[in-house]
């Protein structure tokens, strides 16, 4: 039996409170997945931008690498917030 699928008959047996709880859980899991994808994407983009080689030789970031990484992450989040604001404004118009 595949435990990742939900039988429609099982869903029909749930009361409204349980259905709402399940919808909330699924929505939260979808949000968590989106955030994880975003974090992985940001890590990949910033790593490629800020590090010239695939390894960190000294065991820690040098000043230029640390600054580049911090700026890259900041710009990534700035862009995400700007995009979200734009989408919210588009919905209200």
TrEMBL record:
<keyword id="KW-0811">Translocation</keyword>
<feature type="domain" description="Tim10-like">
    <location>
        <begin position="25"/>
        <end position="89"/>
    </location>
</feature>
<keyword id="KW-0813">Transport</keyword>
<keyword id="KW-0143">Chaperone</keyword>
<dbReference type="GO" id="GO:0015031">
    <property type="term" value="P:protein transport"/>
</dbReference>
<keyword id="KW-0999">Mitochondrion inner membrane</keyword>
<dbReference type="Pfam" id="PF02953">
    <property type="entry name" value="zf-Tim10_DDP"/>
</dbReference>
<dbReference type="InterPro" id="IPR004217">
    <property type="entry name" value="Tim10-like"/>
</dbReference>
<keyword id="KW-0653">Protein transport</keyword>
<comment type="subunit">
    <text>Heterohexamer.</text>
</comment>
<keyword id="KW-1015">Disulfide bond</keyword>
<keyword id="KW-0472">Membrane</keyword>
<comment type="similarity">
    <text>Belongs to the small Tim family.</text>
</comment>
<keyword id="KW-0496">Mitochondrion</keyword>
<comment type="function">
    <text>Mitochondrial intermembrane chaperone that participates in the import and insertion of some multi-pass transmembrane proteins into the mitochondrial inner membrane. Also required for the transfer of beta-barrel precursors from the TOM complex to the sorting and assembly machinery (SAM complex) of the outer membrane. Acts as a chaperone-like protein that protects the hydrophobic precursors from aggregation and guide them through the mitochondrial intermembrane space.</text>
</comment>
<protein>
    <recommendedName>
        <fullName>Mitochondrial import inner membrane translocase subunit</fullName>
    </recommendedName>
</protein>
<dbReference type="InterPro" id="IPR035427">
    <property type="entry name" value="Tim10-like_dom_sf"/>
</dbReference>
<dbReference type="GO" id="GO:0005743">
    <property type="term" value="C:mitochondrial inner membrane"/>
</dbReference>
């Amino acid at each position: 039996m595949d435990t990742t699928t939900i039988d429609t008959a099982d869903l029909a047996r749930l009361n409204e409170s349980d259905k709402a709880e399940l919808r909330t859980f699924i929505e939260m899991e979808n949000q968590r997945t989106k955030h994880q994808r975003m974090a992985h994407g940001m890590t990949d983009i910033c790593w490629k931008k800020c590090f010239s080689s695939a390894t960190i030789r000294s065991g820690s970031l040098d000043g230029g690498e640390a600054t580049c990484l911090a700026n890259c992450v900041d710009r990534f989040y700035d862009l995400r917030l700007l995009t979200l604001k734009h989408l919210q404004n588009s919905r209200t118009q």
